[in-house]
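WARN no homologs supplied; continuing
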Amino acid sequence: MDSASGGAQTGQRWLARASFGAILAALVVLVGSQGAIGLTLVVVGLGASAAILAGGYWFIAERDVRRWIGLAVVVVTAVLVVVAFVRANVVLVAVISLGLLALGGVAARHALRHTTEPWMPVTAAAPPRKPFIVMNPRSGGGKVVRFDLAAKARALHAEVTLLEGPGYVDVAAIVRQAVDDGADLLGVAGGDGTQALVAGIAAEHDIPLLVISAGTRNHFALDLGLDRDDPSTCLQALTDGEEVRVDLGMIAGRPFVNNASFGAYAEIVQSPEYRDNKNRTMLAMLPDLLSGPAGANLTVRTGTRTLTGLQVVLVSNNPYGSGRVQDAGRRARLDQGTLGILAGRLSSAGQAVGLLRRRKHRPVTSTTGTGEVIVEARTPTIPVGIDGEAVTVNTPVHCTIRPRALRVLLPRDRPGVPPPAPRIDWKRLWRLAFGR
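OK structure emitted
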């Protein structure tokens, strides 16, 4: 072991020790200053968390008076906790304890963080000779117009087609014609669904894809490390770019760059009212989808593992984050040849409270599938949200992944992808802090 790696390991060891020290200090401050009252307040805090989760579940899963009772439980519980801490004169002690716990968590994550995993390998890329870009002026609240993307792309000698006008626009036909006319790069400024459609054609012809972050959420652009605030920076790849190969997900013969969702969310996005008022539509449909007869009963099979009785399933092109639910919005890499699976059931307040349990006992499961993921249902067809687009497919649904099938052209100057925070493994942290 060289001195640098030895120093890094020593630093991680002391960070692990500092983490346990901060957590112990938090308990000492709370219990030492308040005695039995401090322990009582810890129990009160845990009980309040359970009550808030249960009340929150009633709010989204019930109707009429019961829904508002759930909301009242959440509000009243939060108020009572604050009042209890104020009357016990422990607000300052609680703040200090929470601060020490937060400090301990930060130290633990830094102690467990290995040397940053290298990002996907990139290669030098020559500027395309005949780039073709489709742009949706309505996507992302009008980013194409606001950032003058069409004019900027044409100034860089790209052919641009705007997806506008009344009626249906056959994007696939437009893009395929461009390939037949000799396009050596396909670009898209639009939502993730449009990007997935063009990505499938680009992969089919082994042509690089240029992703322009002009959509509403731009999840694919986020995981490619692109600038989502200024989509015009993506056009720099036309003159100063580099290439990366990423995986492409497939579902029922259709490509996806982010994920395919089944169950409650997929049912909601199928509703015609969803686009006009998302929050109201979700509150109107969730009671039946979570605890009523309309709720999904899905089965997921991958390899030797089978998950049954599921209400929600998300199959992603590479796993999100560190495998934790709270990281389900970012992928560190897109070239691991692995499908991510996030699945769960939340049909009672008790299961909602179960979110406080240890990871392996929670009603939400996070796993992976290296080859094929099969989603089964009780019906011959099932709604699916594919990169945010609502479609209906036949069951059983087969999801696969095409490793490194898609070439993506990126600008050299881009924000990049910050690494996800590691999951805290307390056993490993203890061995690191005090083991040999």
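The chain has a mean pLDDT of 81.
OK
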